[in-house]
Amino acid sequence: MIDFKKFEKYSKPGPRYTSYPTAPEFSDKFTQEDLIELYKNQDDNRNISLYLHLPFCRSACYFCGCNVIFTSKEDKKVRYIEYLKKELSILKKYLNTNRKVSQMHFGGGTPTYFSPEQMKEIISLLKQTFPNFSDDAEISCEVDPRFFTKEHMEVLKAGGFNRLSFGVQDLNDQVQKTIHRVQPYETTQNVMNIAREAGIKSINVDLIYGLPHQTAETFHETIKQVIKLNPDRLAVFNYAHVPWLMKTMRKFDESTFAPASQKLVILKDTIDFFTTNGYKMVGMDHFAKPEDELFKAIKKGELHRNFQGYTTKGGADLIGIGLTSIGNGIDYYAQNYKDLKSYEAALDEGKLPTFKGYKLSKDDEIRQFVIMELMSNFSLNIKRVENKFNIKFNEYFKEDLPLLQEFVEAELVSMDDEKIQVSPTGTMLIRNICMPFDAYLKKIPENKRRFSKTI
Ligand SMILES: C[S@@+](CC[C@H](N)C(=O)[O-])C[C@H]1O[C@@H](n2cnc3c(N)ncnc32)[C@H](O)[C@@H]1O
Ligand code: SF4
Hints:
There is one protein chain. The protein folds into 2 domains: 19-321, tm_1862 like domain (pyruvate-formate lyase- activating enzyme); 361-448, Arc Repressor Mutant, subunit A. It is 35% helix and 21% strand. It has 15 helices and 19 strands. A 9-stranded mixed β-sheet has the order 9-10-8-7-6-5-4-1-13, sandwiched between helices. It has a 3-stranded antiparallel β-sheet with strand order 14-15-16, covered by helices on one side. Helix 3 links the parallel strand 4 and strand 5. Bound molecules: S-adenosylmethionine and iron/sulfur cluster.
């Protein structure tokens, strides 16, 4: 039995590294003109990966950290589609939209809070703007099972969607009531049946550990129930508690949260449970069946991390569409406005709704590569970094490597001239293990770091 008590000291604020540099580094000095210039110089042979943000939800789940607008008003959705049309037509002026699209993801909010007819319209708008989807494109949508009908499924199927991700979070009654998301098991079972009958081969389920009132016992019950649904993939997220950003999180009584050592017990139990029941661990919070492409990608060292978690499709330029969406090319990040008013105002002026962004320096690119490799594959081929960037690793990171030493001494990481390898227990602390390579984090004193806790 691992003594998790001694790991409590690692429970500190730290990035989840869905990007590097992380979003707080994005700056409004990066403008639509910068983005237009970058689009102009993009390689037409690189694939496009599309992310569309559909921000509306009917009611607030108190744990939610996503960019959401709560509404019951139909006209808001109609208006949003009108502005998406504007955004796509402006985008078309600056980006070669005839490039191959290898991936498209609808995220939210609750995309299926739009009616089936509205979703049909949105899909056809995107397909008109981007006419060249590759035959094996991954097309996915986040689905709240409480807002999903057979008619939605038909529209998604006709639109070529081949992956669905269902939000479940937790099945315990008390937890569900406290997080303000009551979703009976049967609701999830029902929508999974609809998806399977429609021939969807890749179904993901999202769970969260660290929610109020969860214990190792209650969460074990949840995962035992969930595995009966036989999902192809699972994401088991660590609850990111950021009450200074998200008002609804302030409703929680923090004394009902499991302490860090208990959260590690829950995580370890989850890993043991899924890995002894036919799944493999992928990255820091995903599980997939061994025949799943995600797992095959790890074996080839080709797993990539992006804003949606993990993907096998690297080498594409991510184009973010809609409110708050983030795009990402080889050397930049670009984020759209986060409030509707500014988003609409930019589009009314015929501009791209670029709010902030970041142009990566050479140092950023090197550190991004190192952090993303560790986050995805839990190991780093040092020679590969040296050859790719023409550096001497030990020399380049001479100020950072001493910070990795405490993890080496705790046997969470091993390192020689060829390789950094994270141990199985170390994978649970992967965010901490990446932090020594983050040049920006070092500039912020520990007590001023505004990130969710790593454990
Ligand atoms: C944008 S939601 C989309 C899914 C859909 N709206 C639903 O709730 O079913 C994507 C996922 O993010 C995860 N999530 C949201 N807030 C989180 C938080 N504060 N910490 C960790 N995971 C979170 C949840 O697991 C959720 O299913
Ligand atoms: S978890 Fe999903 S349904 Fe709940 S508020 Fe967040 S985006 Fe909306």
